[in-house]
Amino acid sequence: MNIAEIDLNVLVVFDAMHQHLSVTRAGQALGLSQPAMSAALAKLRAQLGDPLFVRTGHGMRPTPRALQLVDPVKRILETVRADILLQPAFDPATAQRSFTVITPDIGELVFVPKILAYNQRHAPGVTIHSVAISSPGAGEALASGEADLAIGYFPDLAKPGFYQQRLFRNSFVCVVRADHPRIQDHPTLDQFLAESHAVVRPAGRTHLYERFLESQNIRRSVRAELAHFASLLTIITTSDLIATVPRDIAHVFAGLAPIRLVDPPLQPPAFHLKQHWHERVHADAANVWLRKLVRDLFHD
Asked: Residues in domain HTH lysR-type (predicted)?
């Protein structure tokens, strides 16, 4: 007999009949009427080619074929219940799991430290692997399972097949060393343009502030072009250069070195940082836990 011809629901009927040895009681256990249970039992007998349960002077009794099937059927049903129907749980306190998170280097400074600090206390076996992937490649990495989550500014991921959740609103601010000789808290546009600037241009990503100045036909005197935000702090604290950066990273810098945050004379529209994930992991218990953690830590 071809397994494709077998209705696996009849195994549930068989198990109930073996437990109760009564069509009526077995049907009640399964929520079936007696006619429906009788029809299901007839189908089971036809598929297996054996009466399976027969009436005797002492009630219904299993045939030798039915007795042979008792243990295999129980194993099959238990496998279905435990491995297929039961939703897998994720216990961060005991889990040994690595998550790959797509975020630019600015995200490694803003997001990763707080996630690691939480995990050290509450999820000691969870590892975070941070990778920097450009926006077009981020979608492919999430869809293939190469990455579990993307955190940051990824407008290209606002498309079918992906979910997103807003975390917080961000804007831009200038950073200068604390004792900068000329820049005060509210520089004018002329003062801003008279200074020399440091600019971060990560590979594969466009800085929103750069794009905004280009749209306004404004050019600055750029003396340092960097690939990573992590390099910027030392340069700012040891020179008179000024840098315009997202406010979240500016606050991280301010906690690490003697710098001042200064309002820029031109402010582009605010933007939102989000977390993104692919629909294939939307219901995955481990991914659900990670997303909830990120939201709890960073949602404004």
From this structure: 6-63
User: What pTM did the predictor assign?
Assistant: 0.74
Domain residue limits, the chain: 3-85, 97-168+272-298, 172-269
Of 194, 191, 175, whose CA–CA distance to 263 is shortest? 175
CA gap 208, 266 in Å, rounded: 13
CA dihedral 238→239→244→245, nearest 10 degrees, is: -10
- List Cα–Cα distances, 142 to 38, 89, 259, in angstroms: 50, 22, 37
CATH architecture of 172-269: 3-Layer(aba) Sandwich (3.40)
**Among all chains, which residue has been given the structure tokens 């998170």?**
101
For residues 25 and 157, what is the distance between their CA atoms, to the nearest angstrom?
55
Buried b vs exposed e over 226-259: b needs ≥16 C-beta within 10 Å? eebbeebbeebbeeebbbbbbebbbebbbeeeeb
Separation of CA 84 from chain center: 22
**Short-list 2, 7, 4, CA closest to 40:** 7
- Looking up tokens 């997303």 gives 291
pLDDT digit string, tens, across residues 232-262: 999 999 999 999 999 999 999 999 999 999 9
Q: How far does CA 219 lie from the centroid of its chain?
A: 39
Q: How many CB atoms lie within 10 A of CB 195?
A: 18
* Neighbouring C-beta atoms of residue 175, cutoff 10 Å: 27
Q: Which CATH architecture has domain 97-168+272-298?
A: 3-Layer(aba) Sandwich (3.40)
Assess contact for 215 and 95: CB atoms under 8 A.
Answer: no
The token pair at 106 is: 């600015």
Identify the CATH number of the domain defined by range 3-85. Answer: 1.10.10.10
Mean pLDDT over 282-286 rounds to 93
